[in-house]
Amino acid sequence: MFTHHTSRRHGTLRKGWQRCLAGAAALALAGSLATAPAQAATSEAPADDNVLRIATDGFVDSFNPFTSFYLVPTNTFRYMYENLVANDAKDGSVTEGLATEWTTDSDGKVWTYTMRPDMKWSDDEPLTSKDVAWTYNQMMEKDEMAVANGSLVENFEKVEAPDESTLVITLKKPQANNPGQEIPVVPEHVWSKIDKPSDFKNDEQSVGSGPFQLESYEANKSITLKANPNFWRGKPKLDEIQYRYYTNSDAQVQAIRSGEVDFITGLSPDQFTALEGAKNVELNDGHGRRFNGISINPGVADAKGKEFGTGNEALKDKKVRQAIRAGIDTETLRKQVMQDYAQPATSFIPAVYPTWALKPDNKVISGFDVSKAKKLLDDAGWKEGSDGIREKDGKKLKLRFLTDADNPIEENTAKFIKPWMKDIGIDLDNESTDVDTVSERTTKGDYDMYFSAWSINPDPDYQLSINTCGQRPDADGNGGTSQDGWCNKEFDKLYQAQHVELDKAKRAELVQKALAIHYEEAPSVTLWYPNQLEASRSDRFDNFTKQPTDGGGIANQVGYWGYASVEPVSEEDAAGGGGLGAGGWIGIAAAVIVVLGGGGWLLSRRKKSDDRE
Amino acid sequence: MSTPTHDDPQPGESRPEDPRPGDPAAPDASPENSTAASAPGSVGTADMDEPPAGGSFARYLLGKIGGAATSMVLVILLGFFAFRMLPGDPVLKIAKERPMSPAQIAELYRQYGLDKPVIVQFWDYLVGIVTGDLGESYVYRKSVSSLIGDYLGPTLLLTATAAVIAIALGLWLGQLSAWRRNSLFDKLASSTSLVFWSVPTFWLGLILLMIFGGTLQWLPTGGMITPGLDPWSPAGIIDVIKHLILPVISLVAVVYAQFLMVMRASLLEEMNEDYLTTARAKGLNEDEVRRRHAVPNALLPTVTVVFLHIGGLIAGAVTVEAVFSWPGLGKLTFEAIRGPDLPLLQGTFVVFSAIIILMNLAADIVYRFLDPRVRRA
Q1: What are the tens digits of pLDDT across the range B263-298?
Q2: Does A146 reach chain B within 8 Å, measured CB to CB?
Q3: Separation CA A51–CA A431 (nearest Å)
Q4: Do the chains contact at A6 and B37, CB–CB below 8 Å?
Q5: First to last CA, chain B
Q6: What ipTM was assigned to the predicted interfaces of this complex?
Q7: What pTM, to 2 d.p., does this model score?
Q8: In terms of Cα–Cα distance, which of A348, A305, A303 is closest to A471?
């Protein structure tokens, strides 16, 4: 409300403008200096040595694993509840969780798990296969309990616990992907006593099986987690994790500099660079599990093939889409726009999952090649016009590129791509708008190209599934989710084949083939895999675990590795932050009083001697 | 409190321009509207300048209340339709980047009440407003009324502190500047305040945060209290005060100029009044003349302007709360936009608007009591 007063008052400052400005600056500095230290003279209570403080700005609806889908609660569930099987830190592959081993019948329809013996919940009650069966059945039977993770149990026919150490999942259709991943298992003895479990907030004193349990939650202030002594891998070395709320990411950067928080994540390249050399701050430039790309409208249609939207007809021709890829210099973008904080990309499964990601040496992969782009467009019948823009049947090749105006990375990408497209004869119209408009227009198919981003889980099945024909939603967004609104029968066959292929090596080969088709068809151009930029206080904690362990990220992991291994550094190293001793503060306070008092006295002297005008 | 005859005060409309050098005593009442940028001010002052001819107080009051009620109705209508016209589907936003089956998406539409026709949603909203039920927040899964109740306290603490300081500082500097206009002090005080006024709040906030939070580490970088402290313990109170300093400075720095300018202009008008000469003739020294005679009269038009700006100050908290992670209504609004959490947005919009409308109404009524000409009319 007060931010943009147009200054009609410049007239006031006609005379002695410079002098006034200098005076203003001096006053401002004096003013702020004067107020701050006088109040700050009491030093902050020393931070508990064994509490890891993490800055966050995430939404929390509740900590109910059946209904909450926001990022912060979902990440917290990974620390609160062990899954039937976990994803390891090394490369995200399936490893033991509540179950120590598992077998499946020959076609992957019946999965039998053997539970780890003598496990206990954090309240010392025994943890058995009955708890797992109860949890899964809740999600299968009740719509309101399936809000968050319903899609993960969609293929479940029945789940049974024949005895306390065995769990049997019978699927509707065979699947290769282990069905016990990423579904938080809750204690039946607690949840079955709750009247309406879907309305349960679960926001204090949680009972779970993971390394940390939720102690308390204060909306927009803090989330406190306490170490669970009954965690089967052993009690974590940290006593507590405390999330603190920071709305503004620049404020988070200041908080890590001042040592008010011990860990922050999700930094922009600029913020990351600004923290280089900051005292006691250790940076982690981790390879991430996200991809950024440009989605190209291949003629979106719903699952029945009925087309909708305003996509340019030219893009239905895959040669035009391939030409766009060949015309984009992704390596320059990665270095200039991402300042090298991103990994070179092939397809939509990121390189942190080496088993599945499309290998860079695959023969379909083609790089930046302007002459090839021009040839592809020539072949497609788009001939260069007098102004350099190609045309066909009297129509110019003019495309729209949707970006989010608030996102500098998208804006910068658009700035680079526009002239590149002009070079190959495409008139690119950069439409930068707000993120909600982008979302609405892409749902309606009202776009030619837009900047897209996805986060990918260790198993590629889901992301592949949303590239199949049957997953395409209609213009209202009903029916499914599609990555690019693209449909290819051959891809669908490969998807089905890998979906049921139990042999990992054979399945990987099928995935490679499917990704190669997607690459060749070019319904989207994957630009890069952005790094996850993070910072921690090296004077307080070390031994964070990354996922993948070799150069990965600490936050937003699929699992509880990141903070579970953290330990405080020794006392001597931890002492001596940037603060002043009590003596220093008293000195500053005294100086302020003298300055303020003296100034006031001087002012009042002046006043007395002033003549009346 | 009776005043000698003087020009129409035009509190919100005096331009803080220095009198020309050759004409030192010229009263400064240029009509150029300088507070047009602060919306609540300009509307209210236009009405107040012309006392209704021959109207009784009751009629005046009813007129003002009627105007406020009309504004409120418009706000309520706008609150529903404006946010629905904005692009962005809250459910699709959640479904994006997350494995969700069609059944899950349908369940969310049902829970949010978005599966009903708009006209039914609108009726529910109207009935809700009348009964004090503002719906349930999508994100917090709590009633919007109770959320607003929870977050109003911190906002009031922040804005009230900032208002008191800004008003005291602005009025004090303003009267000193006017009394010694064209002195170095006047130039420094006026121009500094104007420089700060032109600065975007969030920018100033971030700079303060960087200097005093990140670099010097004198003050906390965000929040209202260190988690785990009891706010009513002595340590807790000191902690809250430390968290208050930077947000309050940001708010004060950006707004105190308007109080300074109004006070300065108002006092300048009083300065060549005969009664001041009389006071001097009685043997009072300059300070006493200023304090006992000039300032009380000059305060009269200032008070109403102050009222008009308090409502705006609360709305200005949105930016500051977002920068300093202050857990108040402003932050709640900021996050609701990100959602988009429609019921919460509607709720905070209606509440903010109601505060501003009520403050304008209060300004009208206070003015009526303070200005004898209006009162007698």
Answers
A1: 898 888 888 788 888 888 888 888 888 888 888 888
A2: yes
A3: 46
A4: yes
A5: 17
A6: 0.74
A7: 0.78
A8: A303
